[in-house]
Design a protein that fits this description.
With about 475 residues, the chain is of the alpha+beta class. The chain has 9 helices and 19 strands. It has a 7-stranded antiparallel sheet, with no helix packed on it. A 6-stranded antiparallel sheet has the order 9-18-11-12-13-14, with no helix packed on it. β13 and β14 form a beta hairpin. The longest helix has about 55 residues. It comes from Anabas testudineus. Keywords: Coiled coil, Metal-binding, Zinc, Zinc-finger. GO terms for molecular function: zinc ion binding.
Length: about 475
Amino acid sequence: MAERNVLVERFLSCHVCSETFRDPVSLSCNHSFCSSCLQQFWEQAKNKNCPICKRKTSKDATVNFALKELADSFAGRQETGSSETEKEKKLQVVCSKHQEEPKLFCNDEDRALCHICDFPHHTGHKVVPVEQAVSDLKEQLKSDLKSLQDKRNKCKQVEKTYNEMIEHSKKQLLSTEQQIRAEFNKLQQFLKEEEESRLAALREEEEQKGKTISIEMKWIEKQISSLSDSICAVEEELHKHNVPFLSSYKATQTRARAQSSLSDPQLLSGALIDVAKHLGNLSFRVWENMKDKVHFSPVILDPNTANGWLHLSDDLTSVRRGDTKQQLPDNPERNTEYTTVLGSEGFSSGKHSWEVEVGDHPVWNVGIAKESVNRKGECPASPKHGIWCLSHYSGEYSDVVGKTVTVKKSLQRIRVQLDYYWGQVSFYDPEDMTHIYTRKETFTEKLFPYFNIGKHGDAKTTDVKICPTEISL
């Protein structure tokens, strides 16, 4: 019997480590070895020849399950029950020779080590206890988790703003439609066809921009869902035991960092309905049919840029500061820090002029501003911040650098004159064309008419209006 056991042990022993097979694999030459021993031998030999007969293997080394079952049975390694299974799962090792849970971790190679086999080969590497490595890596994952959570919060904020923009677009649709109908009702029946065509254009734009926002919203929802999945994965990872954590944390961390590095979602410009396009100079655009009844306004105010305290007229040619702030979406074009509104069309060449009726309004700035002017933060009216204007405050008038300018009488109207090519913006009293002051600059980007309406105590103060220009044919 003893001789038989010796023969069996010899048959079930690995020729590399001389121990009973663990996960034996058989080569095409029919020689068998422990899987880990064979891989280690191949790495050292830098080829895939059989360690015994030196023949090159003609197939992948796969586990010989029949031999494995015999070896496990002979060595007493067969599973004895669910409790043993759980114990085996809990005790994961990195060395087939030394069945101990790893106690060391190499930061340089980012892996756990067998303190007997591997440690001597890691001289000069940063080797730390597994507990310390796990603690450090979990801290990294916590940081990644925080990044994911912050990004998800930003996504949710963008989603919230898009929802507000959708609701506001619906209100814009209704309001603009009513104003278009009111305008066309002033015209005769022969303009009915023109009216319907413009209503169709409005609805088409609302539909197109609604689709654009819907596409962006779906993308944001996917981002939120993906980030939420990653957050759950990271949180799940952080609850794992040391070795299971070490065996799986890398993929989770890679995914989390990849998502964290993605750029933050940005709101699309121009997502709101271009109300100015539909309402601005509406009568003028049909002047060939109604020559004697239309008036042209050289500047149309853009409601998508208006601060919430400002209220625009239906035809977008006058503005007043209200007593209550409107709830408007924080779209990229909107001025939120100052009570400012811009014209709907900018200028990047040529000569342009328009007149503004300021009446007895006590506080205002009127002029031009760069397209890139800061609409969300600190931005005083000065050339440094891309604004050139005439200001009125406490009964005094001042230029763009705050220097007081002298006028003969209180100004009721202001003419703004822009010569883009020569880099000049001038201000006049249109009543007698008295020159107030001129500023020379070098303009490099599109300029927009600029209106800032300050606080005042008299609720009856007149609106600031764009003066209409008669059309000469």
